[in-house]
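Hi D.,

Good news: the full-assembly prediction came through. Inputs first.
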Amino acid sequence: MAKAKFEVPELQEYPQVPTIEPGAMAHLETFKAKPEFQEALGFPGELAENWQEQAIEAMGDMLGKYRSLKVYMDSCVKCGACTDKCHYYLGTKDPKNMPVARQDLMRKVYRRYFTLAGKFFPKLVGASDFTQEVLDDWYNYFHQCSQCRRCSVFCPYGIDTAEISMAAREIMDRIGLGDKYSNEIIGKVYRIGNNLGLPGPALEDTLEGLEEDVFDETGVEVKFPLDVKGADILLVTPSADFFAEPHVDGLIGYGKVFHEAGVSWTISSKASEAANFGMFIGSYENMRKVSLRIREAALELGVKRIVFGECGHAWRVAYAFLNTLAGPFDFLDQNYPVPQHILEFTLDEIEKGTLNIDKSLNDDMVLTFHDSCNVARATRMGDKPGGQFDIPRAVIKAVCNNYVDMPADSIREATFCCGGGGGLLTDDLMELRVKGAKPRMEALKSVTEEYGVTHMAAICAICKSQFTKVIPYYGFEMDQIVSVHQLVSNALILTGQNSESEEDKSEEDAA
Amino acid sequence: MSLAITVLFYLATVILVVGLAYRIWVYARVPAPLKIVTTPAPVTKAGVVLRMFREVAFFESLFKSNKLLWLLGVLFHFGLLLVLLRHLRYFINPVPAVIELVQPFGKYAAFAMIAGLLGLWVRRLVIDRVRYISAPSDHLILALLLLIGISGASMTFVSHVDIVGLKSFTMGLMTFDWKPLPPDLLLVIHLFLVAVLMIIFPYSKLLHGVGVFFSPTRNQVDNPREKRHLADWARKLEENS
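Then the structure:
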């Protein structure tokens, strides 16, 4: 079990709502962005003398631009329905991690400067001046929200804390108080093209390496093309897929599926990143700028379709925002959804029967599936509501014999965030990440004990990175986390694949 | 006293109507630049209407969240609804048959309303999480509603008020042909508190009744891939780049 400088929560058999411990996470603060990272995104480098004035002006501007913010500031009745729904509250016991209390950090400033009641009777309605202390709370606690929207499912008015934490981060950025992790990464996307800062030549090497690996294993020449003009499909995938485990096994899976489907496809060095951290910092302008790379790449390469790899918030931006931010996509083939999720593509191929699947090759595993928060509550797959739950499960069940779901209050629209989403996947927030994973770990533990689950599949680069890092704290092994397309890859027998390699492969998996 | 209550009621009505109209205008005017519907969500407009109906009529999301809170909320809100319907008899002459039909239910609904409010208040005091998020105004609004309910129910069940005199007063308000208010302390208290409620409505969390209809996570159609959604300020951003 990994060592921690903080107390790792004990997993309970029957998860309980903890008693509040005010200030429990007040010490945890993510590193602030240096002036150069701020300026690269068009924000001031540091706090000015009159930051308070600037912040209130920025808030007024946002209230006039975002109906969500305006309506949500006014509508909360403090009923408490959301108070036991946030994984960070459940894991940390800090009451400021209850969705309503997190919102109130902004609401008390809103009431003070933008409502009659707050102007005349601040104490009565819980309004407060925008003091340094309040700003410190903003910085700490709006960076303890993974924008997973679980609270918005249970709120009777649909108040979405993600909208509020995004707006708060945008306001802080506009006064020169940014978070290093997200802002530095967005800068890398502008300079180099992806979050990992992986330049074109390195990407080419990596993809060639994958081709060799697949060839060594199967004897089949599966291509992982880069910047191929005139390809049918542009694959946009999180850059973690090029390197990290188990992400890269997923990428191999996409490549094999494309190969068997007989389509031409390419990755773009310009849009070599599906992630869009502009969403995490609530910046429409930055989110748009990051999105436009994909449009430009699609136009330059002359592709007909865009397919996204396994990534949660990237799929939210792609599915829900891309058409708005970088559309219209009338130059693409309208017979396919724009954009399409790789799971939609793969399920189509499975249903068409183009893939030769041997499910028994995954028999060394008993699987469960972690619904990624952004996919579950902010997107869809297929043409029916809920396709985002059914399609991944349909694909897993098509390639695996052993599958069970985790408890109902922890999956589908009620799924728990992995604990590392929303721009919090940084080592300076490790305590939060470990504690925030508690509800998911409890659900995983229950199916492990009851059904002998050995592996949990995920479809998000952040979930995969977060889980491989934090599950050892709870006594699991990091390789218990798998990509869904890794399972597809395991079970997919390529046309002309040499037979003895299958044995090698299953041995490897068992190891 | 009649004069004071008369003036107060006109004032309260103007504030309520103008205040709410202003809020609705603001909410309608502020754009929702992105599709942020909480999924799974309806993919058609008709589906959204149905979703909103379930939300408003059955408190669907609250039911998913917390059964006890849902029950207390239903007791209060639907109790209040029946009570309000019953009160229409004081403002319409002759009283429509449907309101006559509601009358017996409306009378006893006052108890459901009061029970719901008491339950909500106990919850606010007893559960540490809910106590933590409560401001003084959250308690005061509950107190106000409770006093309105108790003073009203007292006139129905304890100390009867001069109904004929009251109706001539309310009809007088409606027709600007002012009549005296029956001299009854409970009635004065009841009407005064109702006027206070009407006045604070557009400036308080009571706005949730309007806000829910404008909540983008609930009122949007889930069709971002099929239909391009673009706010005016975002369109300008495009034109400038």
